[in-house]
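Weekly structure sync, notes
Attendees: PL, DS, HV (note-taker this week)

Item 1: Leucyl aminopeptidase family protein
DS walked through the input record. Source organism listed as Halovulum marinum. Sequence as pasted into the shared doc:
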Amino acid sequence: MTARFAAPTPDATPIHVLPAETAEAFAAALPAPARAQLQVQPFAGKLGEVRLLFSPGGGLEMVLAGWGTAAERARQQFPLGNLAGALPAGTYALDDAPDGPDRTRLALAWLLSAYRFDRYADRPAQEAALVAPAGVDAARLEQEAAGVALACDLINTPANDMGPDELEAAARALAEAEGAAVSVIRGDALLERNFPMIHAVGRASDKAPRLIDIAWGAADAPAVTLVGKGVCFDTGGLNIKPGASMGLMKKDMGGAATVLGLAQMIMRLKLRLRLRVLIPAVENSISAGAFRPGDVLTARNGLTVEINNTDAEGRLVLADALALAAEEAPALLVSMATLTGAARVALGPDVPPLYTDDEALAAELAAAAATRADPLWRMPFFDPYEEMIEPEIADLDNAPRGGFAGSITAALFLRRFVDGAGAYAHFDVYGWTPAAKPARPRGGACQGARALLEVLAARHGGGAAR
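Item 1 (cont.): predicted structure, written out as C-alpha cells:
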C-alpha cells in the first residue's frame, strides 16, 4: 500500500494546527457561528485535540488541531500522528502548520498513518487525504513512506509465507522494478564460494540458506553497502528458545526488511551512489544436520568462531556477508539486524543502538535521527570488552558467558569482519512496535532507515524522485 499526497485543490478543508498558548486567541477571532460551536465544545489546543467546525450551511469549514505544549510534543515521536484517522473522508490542507522539521514530521506522519497490513484480512483504508504542505519535499516523503511500508509488510508476513525463498523473491522484485542487478548463492554453493557460516546456520532447514546480492548505481559513484540480517525464523537451533521467546521470531529478518526498504528509497530518489545490498537469508532450524554448541566454524575471512549458543546465529551469518562486503572496500558499510535482547533491555523497543567509530558519521546520524523522528542512540565499541568475545580455543566466541554488555559484544564481534571498509556503522534494531502509537501501528517497524537516508541524501544528493 503506497500512501500519496492529494493533488492541490481550492476545495481542500483547512486544518489549523494550534499550540496551547495561541488556541484561545485564535478561537476568539473566528466568525460568530464558529465561536458558537466552540461554546458547546471548547478547544484548548491540547495535543491531539481535534474540533470540526461547520459552516452555517452544514459543510465542514475547518479543522482545529491541538499542537499542545513543547513538553507534550517531546513525549511523542509523531505528534498528531492520529489526526488523519480522526477526520471524515475528504481532502485537507495543512499549510499553516509549524515550519521546518515539525511541518515535515506532520506531513510524514499523515502518510505513515495510512499504512495497513491487509494481506490476510481486509482493513478499512484511510479516507482523509492531505495536500502536500508548502515547504516540504513531497516526493521524498512519499518515497520514505513507501520504503517503510515495504519493510513493514515483509516483517509482518509470517514465516510460512516469508521464508528464504520469499525473501529472495521480494529482493528480486525490488531489483527488477528499480533496474538493479541481483545474484543469489544458494545451498551447498555457499561452501564452494566460501560462506561457511551462512551455510552452517541454515543447513538444518529444508529451505536452503542463501546470500542475496543486489547492485545498483554508477560504477564510479561512492560505494555504500547495506547488510541486513535475514533470519526468516529463529527457533534458537539446538539451544531452542522457549515458546514465549519464539512467538515473534518471524521478525528476525527485520534487518533484511529494513535494508530493502532503505534500498528502495535510495533507488527511487536516485541518490548519486553505488549501492550494494547483501542479505544472508536462512532459517535457524532443528534437525540432525543442525550446527551444535561447541562446534568451531571458520568464517569467510579465516577467523575461527566457537559456538557457545546456537541462538546467537545472526552475528554468524552477518559475519560472512560483512567479510564479503569489506573485500570491495566501500566508503560506507552498514549492518542492520534484530540482533540482541540486550539492546532492548538497555534502550527499549523504540530506540535502536547505533555503533560506529566514525565521529563525523555519528554526528550526522544523531542530527538526522532528531530531525527525521527516527530515534537512534550511540553506544560504544568499547575496546576493553574485546577479551569477552575471545574464548580459549578459537579466535572468537559467538555467545560470551556472563550476560553482560550483550549488545556491545555482538557489535564488537561484527567489527572483526569489516577490515577494509572506509567507515562502518551497525544498527541493532528491534523491528517491531509492541503497542500502537500515533503513525506507528502495532507490528513491523522500519527503524534507522530514514535517519540513514537523510545522511546519504545530504552526502550524495539525488535526482527527481520516481
